[in-house]
Amino acid sequence: MTSSSTPSLQQLYEELPYPNVPISTSARGALAGLYCASLTTAQYARSRAIVSSEGALILNAGCGSGWETLILAEANPGAQLVVCDLSPESVRVTEQRLRYHGFENVELHALNLLDVEQLGLQFDFISLNDVLYLLEDPVAGLKVLKRVLKPQGILRANLHHAYQREVIFRMQKAFQLLGLFDLPTGEACERVREFMHNLISDEARAALRWDATIYQDNTNMRANYLLPGDKGFLIPDLMRMLQEAELGLVCLVDYADWDPTLLFKEIPQWLKPELDKLSPAEQNHFYELIYPNHRLIDFWAEHPGSSLVLPWSNADWLGGRVQLNPILTDDPDFCRSLAKAAQKKVEFTCNWPGASRRRLRLSPAQVAWLGSLLQGPTPVQTLIQQASQANSLEPETAQEQVLTDLMALEEFLFVMLDPTPSGEALDCSWQQNGVLATGQQSLVD
Ligand SMILES: C[S@@+](CC[C@H](N)C(=O)[O-])C[C@H]1O[C@@H](n2cnc3c(N)ncnc32)[C@H](O)[C@@H]1O
Fold this sequence. Notes:
With 445 residues, this protein is an alpha/beta fold. It has helices at residues 7-15, 31-37, 39-47, 67-75, 88-100, 138-147, 166-177, 185-197, 202-207, 218-223, 235-244, 271-276, 280-290, 314-319, 326-329, 332-344, 364-370, 380-390, 395-411, and strands at residues 57-61, 80-85, 106-110, 123-128, 149-160, 248-252, 296-302, 321-324, 348-351, 359-362, 378-379, 415-418. The relative contact order is 0.12.
């Protein structure tokens, strides 16, 4: 199989494994990364089934310096990890990082991801962060990964956004004209610093997204202004690529933050019905045309039609149990803060990648009953009773409020519903994959 990358890209990562995070840095509590790396979160988005990571086989393709691998290991307790990277040095650093943090259940390969079939493995979850846009032919990469994805498996990958990163692409072209891509890294980086330092004004530097502190680090410089083979994409590009690779889009990983209604103080009356006519992908495209604020188009994909999900009925909710997303209950800081808010009966806010604007706000009235989820999966009926008692509500009102709030929090993948009272594992193969509706404004800052 031909190599996916130019020799200079290979040299770059061999010289500077990415990202430049100290080996001793822990990934615990790194909620944004853990959310994207969690198989349970991804599978819930895909099939509305609560799937444990225990025993799952996970591929980290293009592991870099192992920071993503460490996050995958933390986010997926009991999973077995297989990692590969073109760069042997990156694989060595990954091994060192995982060993430092006590993760032994990992198989490492200095291998082009285009050759991953030679491992003879099939994966439950495949993760490639900040890799796909580097491949000469990203569709060829997706096709290979599809072949090693189990029938119910899920793939998480991302692409640089063409508009959000437009300035960086322009500067890459400018520095290519100046021959900086052909110089040794140290010299090229020094020249970029000198160039930026001598620009006429701070405004000019800001317009080129220059930050002297961040770009003291050659790894960051090489990952942006001096990155060979970098490419930008839009939502229609993603849809075309998935179609060519015969993969289906589950949804964007941060889909709630691509909701066009977030862009308006008050949505004009004529606009809402027009937006409702658009498919989810068209709505995402509309959003990026108006406000391209996402560096990455980050997505979950699957074998097309493999998950068929119908929305839960009220009966499912009323007879079921709800739990917090496990990456929250695994985070001692989160648990402490929510418990404290519940005890003091005060508002609770937290950063949550699944929410619109990545921020979640719970009112004191919501915290009063949601706090009990810290004890583990809880029957919805118990939550209704607690809401009724804590907030002095009639049972019917408490039921309505609890269901409304739980449904909104579930759309943000903050809570998960197990509709089977006995807690038996669900066979979700019959479910139809639905569109994830946008979250409730009341839960957003
Ligand atoms: C920007 S880094 C991302 C590292 C890591 N995934 C992360 O998010 O921290 C890109 C990595 O992909 C690797 N890579 C690029 N093309 C590859 C390929 N065809 N097969 C395997 N690894 C590749 C590079 O060597 C580099 O380590």
